[in-house]
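Example record

One chain of 298 residues, shown exactly as stored in the release files.
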Amino acid sequence: MTTDASEPAGNSPGDSPTGVGRTALIVAAARAAESERADRLFTDPFAADFVAASGFEMPGVTGPPDSDAPEAGSFGGYASIRTRFFDDYLVDATRELRQVVIVAAGLDTRAFRLDLPAEVTVYELDSPAVLAFKQRVLDDRGARPSCRRIPVATDLREDWAHALIEAGFDPAAPSAWLIEGLLPYLDHAQNDRLLATVGGRSSAGSRLALEFVSAEAVTLLGQALTGDARTEMTALWHNGGVADAAEPWLHRHGWDARAYDTYERAHSYHRDLPPPGDGPMDRFAHAARQSLVVAHRR
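Predicted structure tokens for this chain:
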């Protein structure tokens, strides 16, 4: 869930990610914490390895909730719901589809930890630095994917679709796309171009799942964060999100969509997100009705 815009000149391949890349470590920390729960919604056996290799710590995500960093604990609870939702989406989609594209894959390990069919090919798009760090940790663990996995090192601000096709992706075959945690880091025009690029490489029968974040939601979260967290995160958002609602936006780009509210999804997994007001992430999700979306190509 990173873009090459995050990588400073000094970030060499294999180094711990920085900038937007650090958000991938935040999510990995949340997945590691979830994997330790007795009632866990999923197991990510590699998440803790990423965190350990980076030396990264975040109170409220890597350990017990910290009252001084409520946004961290709130995000950890939300990230677990989001992860499980997209896990279920990919398992279901790959019963029929044989191509998966994870845009801004970050430290995603679904090609390893989900029981995907061996004939499925998963393309993981992200910056060279993030993918190199990820590969180093996975190699150290001796990790082997359940399916065919092809990392595609690219700058998501550039012609990443060309790099994807060069890696073997077939735009004539229906595909399952996943865009998780990316929209806030792109401005409105960039998000429109992103969806147009995905649509232009999606034949009929393709599926798309994404974490839909409205411009209103980005603003709310920016107002809720304080101190260094606000400075760091809002500097990366670039007035991000989407100006329209999820279904109309996707419909204009050729997709039939259904949005799932995060609180409803949490209830379906027998989890309760904290009441609105307990932390910035909860106010953000509740007030803006942040959605997880599954769409089908018309």
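Notes: Residues 1-14, 62-73 have pLDDT under 50 and may be disordered.
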